[in-house]
Amino acid sequence: MFQSLSTLPADPILGLNQVFQQDGNPDKINLSIGVYQDAAGKTPIFSAVKKAEQLLIEKQKTKSYIAQAGDPDFLEGVVRLILGDALAADINERVSAVMTPGGCGAVRMIAELLVEASTSGRVWVSNPTWANHYPLLESAGLTLETYTYYDTATNKIDFEGMVAALQAIPKGDTVLLHGCCHNPTGADLTPAQWDQVISIVAERELMPFIDVAYQGFGDGLDQDAYGIRSAIERLPEVLIASSCSKNFGLYRERTGAAIVVSESARAANAAKSHIMSAARRCYSMSPYHGGGIVGLILSDDGLYQEWRNELETVRNRMNLLRDQLAKGLNDVQSKIDFGFVGDSKGMFCFLGIPRESVLTLRSEYAIYLLESTRINLAGLSEKNLPIVIERVADVIQR
Ligand code: LMR
Q: Is 357 strand, coil or helix?
């Protein structure tokens, strides 16, 4: 049966990470996949996560199924984290949430919902967007189109272009926005730009679909939720795909949530029933472990505070490395002004160097970044930063 199949090309992110893992160069540097690393180059387990996990193992009396939608503490906690306490309480009836296998599971479950509910079946994504948005959404049966977002000539958001593009989207289509820490560019909308985008979404009667995978990695948990909360305050319906991979460091647990804000409790419940039915036909229900951990952290004041503090340390470290990279690159060369690197938010930014330079960094120096020039700032360290600066400057000046 499989004789006729040819092997598919590797995933652009996971595949490159695999090539890195197999590279025998002892000085190799991984700036490809979005995984946080500390000064020792390790991806630590948050201590709040470790404590919650121990607690969960001690408390757990059965391995029987949990509710079909997922752990209630997790769902309530994640909704409050994203919406904020006040908004979550205000619109409680109009929100429904389902636990999913990671942020990818959430994007996919919302895609399944859109296939059933959206009349056009079209979703507009930013140009560029996270590479995996395409297979996740298109294989569900949706058609993807792009709206103008990032200008590689200026290394900034082309906001005028974005506004014009959004204004031309047909009524009823879905627009996928990155809640914060845009992946891959690190270029985020300002609050004023969010306000304008939300006005267009309202005027054009578009369906906003916000993917939030890095809450707390930009300016802070509340600041990073500005766009989502404003959208909910001003629009009748909002779809949210959320991930706990990065901000709880739960990469392998696959923990996320598909959240639907609807016009009425009835519609929110109907949407939830469709998501649960899609999950049932794909994988029945989400795995529990990661959600159980997050649910414990978000429902315990001590663990919550500990996690927030740890997240702040992670954010501050990434911001320091970002500033040092931008300054260091500008100190040693004048071909490219890397000031925009210092303005980026979250884990990623584009480096804006020629593609050949990306390939030379990989082949000559075993420094891995995506061909789009996206780098994972959290792959930098006090130790490898001077090397990265020297070698990037070298390849772009050849
Ligand atoms: C990334 O963008 O590198 C991460 O979100 C990991 C992934 O699954 O692609």
A: helix
